[in-house]
Amino acid sequence: MRVVAILNQKGGVGKTTTAVNLGAALARRGRRVLLIDMDPQCNLTDHLGVDLDEDAPSVYDVLASGITLEETIRPTATEGLDVAPADEDLAGVEVEMAGWPGREALLRKAIHALPEGRYDWVIVDYPPSLGLLSLNAMAACPEIFITLQTEYFALRGLGQLARIVEMVRSGIHPELRIAGILPTLVSPVTNLAREVLEEVRAHFGDRVFTTRIRQNVRLAEAPGHQQHIFDYAPHSAGAHDYEALAEELLRSSGIPEPVEEDANGSSDRPDPHPTADAVVPPPGRPEGPVEGPPLPKEVEIKPLPDAPTNGKSGERPRPESPTS
User: What is the C-alpha to C-alpha distance for residues 68 and 109, in angstroms, rounded to an integer?
Assistant: First the structure.
């Protein structure tokens, strides 16, 4: 079972979009995939149209009450793709667990308790912050995929995040590593995107995915219809890019996945030459090392502080104002 966190401290850079559509692409290739929503905004849960009753268990209950992930899992409309949903109560979990020993390992224990062989992939979506929830991500997932918007400030954030990952690796989770950097919201017609990609590849080499997720309006529209891109716009550039990302991951693991064809010889793989909202294909991978200036200067990173405990260990708090 491969356990991956989609992480970035910046919002709006395609974390949830990547978790949903990569998970769907892998499931369409016969993989059994569990998506875990660790964002109090519940965007992944909403994206796939998962509705929770008031008393239905969620990821919050896994962390705060010790129930199993198995009790929260909901199937989706895509065979092989399941979701462990979030609800608004997750917004208060950091305060509630402030004084708990081993609080950073709660998710890791829950994932390890899943039935052996149940899933091939577990993909965890996290909020745009570096608090206790994100610390659980780095303690639970040996691999981190970072979504990177191709702009200057994203480079500063990437350098900061890489240093925090190193701190967690040395202090909490020795197996933790940045396994992939995924360029998102790439505009293939601007010099800035090309320059940012060259600089990132000069520092991170083969950890930068060859696949690049291009700017695509269909990807932005799909959550409003509570569908992943393969159901909403299967011939779009967004579907093509996430299909290519899944193929790159499976190929790198040494297990290429053939695409099944029906009786007429047609495949359900998105058209490799989309026409509905076609854009220029992503630029090719640079040959050899690329010289570039160093990443922005180091920003001082302070260890994550313990929040003051509220003295409650058994109560289930209900936030007065749910996060929207």
Answer: 9
User: What distance in Å separates the CA atoms of residue 9 and residue 134, rounded to the nearest whole number?
Assistant: 9
DSSP 179-216: EEEEEESB-TT-HHHHHHHHHHHHHHGGGB-S---B--
Low-confidence ranges of the chain (pLDDT < 50): 256, 258-324
CB 213 within 8 A of CB 241: yes
CA atoms within 13 A on the CB side of 279: 20
pLDDT at 28: 96
Residue-level pLDDT at 170? 86
Structure tokens at 150: 């191709």
Reading the block at residue 39, the tokens are 């964002």
Contact 37, 84 (CB under 8 A): yes
List the beta bridge partners of residue 123.
4, 35
**What does each C-alpha distance from 178 to 7, 24, 195, 300 come to in angstroms?**
10, 22, 21, 20
- Report pTM: 0.77
